[in-house]
Amino acid sequence: MKLSTLFKSISVAGALAVSSLAFAVDNNINVNANDLAIHGYDPVAYFTKGAPTKGSAKYSATHEGAIYYFSSTENRDKFKANPTKFAPQFGGYCAMGIVLNQKLDTDPSAWYIDQGKLYLNLNKTVQKKWMEDVSGNIQTADRTWNGIEYVPAQVLADQ
After folding, report:
1. Domain YHS, which positions (predicted)?
2. Residue in 103, 95, 144 with CA at minimum distance from that of residue 21
């Protein structure tokens, strides 16, 4: 798939995804209308279980204005001890979207850990594009994120 075609599909999907999102604190965390991050999935489980795992409100913690759910007390406590180790990169927005200067929602099943960091993507199709050049995409996304971290997703979608 050409990058321009991918960008168009991401833009359309992103516009739909962005319209249903609310944004924590300074618009730098991808959350729903109730400030819930990662659609309620446990960020620690990606590292410990190696799979997306639905969390529970029974085990929750707040980080940077976002609420995270966990599948166990142990995972919640690990997160609370070191949230930056487990929280997804780019505020939980689609990593490939950040490469393309967009803040897009994510599918918790489209994930990847690289050098101890969790990256999420819009969907598995977008994740395939991400996987073509993970290190290059991370470098680009890191640079881009520094310029858009606090820009509301809707502003980026309107550009």
Report:
1. 44-89
2. 103
Alpha helices per DSSP H over 1-159? 3-19, 43-48, 73-81, 83-86, 95-99, 124-131, 134-148, 153-158
Taking every pair of Cα atoms in the chain, the longest distance, rounded to a whole number of angstroms, is 44
36: its two tokens: 């819930």
Instruction: Read off the pLDDT of residues 51-95 as tens digits, 9 standing for 90 and up.
Output: 999 999 999 999 999 999 999 999 999 999 999 999 999 999 999
**Global pTM value:** 0.84
Pairing assessment for the beta strands 107-114 and 117-121 based on DSSP bridges: antiparallel
29-57: string of b/e by CB count within 10 Å (b at 16+)? bbbbeebbbbbbbbbbbbbeeeebbebee
Sign of the dihedral defined by the CA atoms of residues 139, 144, 146, 149, in that order: negative
Mean pLDDT of the chain: 88
Question: Tokens for 146?
Answer: 């520094």
Q: Which residue has the tokens 């949230």?
A: 83
How far is 9 from 147, CA to CA, in rounded Å?
A: 23
What residue ranges do the domains of the chain occupy?
3-158
Q: What is residue 27's predicted lDDT score, i.e. its pLDDT?
A: 72
- Identify which has the larger pLDDT, 90 or 155: 90
